[in-house]
Amino acid sequence: MPDGRHVLDAILNERLGLDQASIGSGLVPRATRARMRATGLVEPAAYAELVARSEAELQALIDEVVVPESWFFRDVLPFAFLHGLAREGWTARPAREPLRVLSLPCAGGEEPFSIAVTLDEAGLGPGRSCIDAVDVSARRLEHARLGLYSLNALRGVGPDRVARWFRIRGENFEILQPVRDRVQFHLGNVLDAALLADVPKYDVIFCRNLLIYLARDARARAEANLERLLAPDGVVVIGHADTLGASAAGRAFVLAAARGAFAYRRRKPGEIPPPPLELALPAPPPSRPAAWPRQRSRASPAGRRPAPSRRRPAPRPSRLRIRGPCSNRRWSTRTRGGTAKRWPAASARPVARGLRRRSTP
Ligand SMILES: C[S@@+](CC[C@H](N)C(=O)[O-])C[C@H]1O[C@@H](n2cnc3c(N)ncnc32)[C@H](O)[C@@H]1O
């Protein structure tokens, strides 16, 4: 009988495609021990058997294994980029179809809610844009739907925005209901070839701080999905430590915005191929104030390439179901303009400097 640890590794590799070098060798054993304690099982083989037959336990293990860290307006510049794109491409063109944005992965909602605030500030109300948000962790999605955050999650937010978009709830901050209403959350897997298969394509996909954790073949599958989900003149925004280029789909993207936003568009026919995107750009300076406690990150240094790994079987189909206004429009009815070329970075406010907790009206 195969060793329980190997069975669990195989299951997690199939579902998440994690790169051991990026996540660290202790993460999965730690997560497994925590779940074994929670389920009262002492034998790894018995626990592996439970995970193999119970989707609920596999989900609980996934919740334990994923790297969940996120915060509002993380890295600032991607949101400044989105603000400029929304204003030039949509606010200035009122007859255009609504702007469609996907946050994948969305963690606890910090990123898609930042996107919602950005679009509102760019003059795009709910009727002119829609935001889908997907994560593989059911626990993170529960947190997102709750909409409650610690001060730590607001370290990228200026005081004006805190006052405008949050209200204090005990020790925490609650994102206001109109912002919450703009985001539709879904359980889903970036490796799933059927992910969001029945919805219109997205004009902007934020896929930040996930590719860094994936083994090369998993990254290739994720890139193929990003390419499939993106509108013809759409833009993919990745994190500063992420890289594209593990697949032909990934290599077909070129940098679309000024340094710092890490926004990529499809290469146009006849356009000179760029240098390999595997050569990651340097990380931008840290955006958090020095006085705040540093969070430990499990991400490896920028530009580090995951070790090649063997091809894994396709992931199990996700249980994703899409409903609501973001999904009931036909892709074929869309009208599209050209891609904007300049990205004003005017919307970024000073980051969290001088932030004090205060009551909101
Ligand atoms: C570090 S957070 C990044 C969140 C956000 N994009 C950001 O940049 O702040 C990584 C998230 O990826 C999610 N995740 C991990 N593997 C995934 C997969 N295969 N499909 C979808 N989400 C995944 C985790 O649950 C976690 O919430």
Automatic annotation (TrEMBL):
UniProt cross-references to InterPro entries, sorted A to Z: Bact_Chemotaxis_MeTrfase, CheR_C, CheR_MeTrfase, SAM-dependent_MTases_sf
Keyword Repeat on entry: no
Record keywords, A-Z: Methyltransferase, S-adenosyl-L-methionine, Transferase
Compositional bias (Pro residues): 273-288
Residues covered by the CheR-type methyltransferase domain: 11-269
Biased composition (Basic residues): 307-322
PROSITE patterns xrefs: CHER
Residue numbers spanned by region Disordered: 273-361
UniProt name for this protein: Protein-glutamate O-methyltransferase CheR
The species this protein was found in: Paludisphaera mucosa
